[in-house]
Amino acid sequence: MNKKRFSSPSGYLDSVAQSNAYSFVPVSLAAEFLNVTPSMINDLLKNGSLDAVVVNGSRKNWKGVLVESLMTYTKNKRTSVTSMIKQIRHILETAAKKKRKMFYSDLMEQVGLSYQNPYHRRLIGECLGKLSAQTFKEKNYMLSALAVLKSTGRPNEIFFELANELGALDDTQKEKDFYQSQIKKIYGKYKT
């Protein structure tokens, strides 16, 4: 973890007054901003993904996340998500050509994520959601329909919620019928 330490509040405030380079936010605010838990922020601080600022006072110490590192992390994450979406799209298009579905866990493994990690599950969900929106806009189907749960052989409920939000699934349509129509469209598009 990269840390900048200040020996007093006045030393910190003097530094910030000269340059915003050491502005920081509390861990809880950083967690809210990234939509993760405070313990995830602490993990990101420990592994060096985020930088910490520590101010030692005479009665109290303050620790937070350097704003600049938070913004850099967010920018890098966006780039990483975009890259991962391209990778997932290629994997699912390859599966479509073979008329196959993929378990979420297998897809995650192929892009270097672990199904056991809650953050990774959120990340794959974010990527699949964005991919669904892209392919629905471009081709009128949700390519992520090929990513399924082992227990049901169908996508999770979030897939159907997104389908509703996108206007792909209307209130009169049954989820099962909608899902089958998506698979039919996808397999039809990727005939070999």
Fold and architecture overview:
The chain has 192 residues and is α/β, with parallel strands linked by helices. The chain folds into two domains: 2-71, no CATH class; 98-189, no CATH class. 58% of the residues lie in helices and 12% in strands. It has eight helices and six strands, in the order E-H-E-H-H-E-E-H-E-H-H-E-H-H. A four-stranded mixed beta sheet has the order 1-3-4-2. Strand 3 (51-56) and strand 4 form a beta hairpin. Helix 2 (27-34) crosses helix 3 (38-46), helix 4 (67-97) packs across helix 6 (118-139) and helix 6 packs parallel to helix 7. The protein starts with a strand and ends with a helix. The mean pLDDT is 90.
Number of domains: 2
Number of helical regions: 8
Q: What's the main sheet like?
A: 4 strands, mixed
Cross-sheet strand order for the largest sheet: 1-3-4-2
* Percent in helix: 55-70%
How many DSSP E strands?
A: 6
Radius of gyration from the alpha-carbon trace, in angstroms: 22 Å
Order of SSEs = EHEHHEEHEHHEHH
Give the overall shape: elongated
Give the DSSP E fraction (strand runs of 2 or more residues).
5-15%
Low-confidence stretches: none
- Mean model confidence by pLDDT: 90
Secondary-structure class = alpha/beta
- In whole angstroms, the N-to-C terminal distance is 50 Å
Spell out the key features of this protein.
192 residues, alpha/beta, 58% helix
Question: In a few lines, what is going on in this structure?
Answer:
The protein has 192 residues and is α/β, with parallel strands linked by helices. The protein has helices at 9-18, 27-34, 38-46, 67-97, 104-110, 118-139, 157-166, 175-189; strands spanning 2-6, 24-25, 51-56, 61-66, 102-103, 147-148.
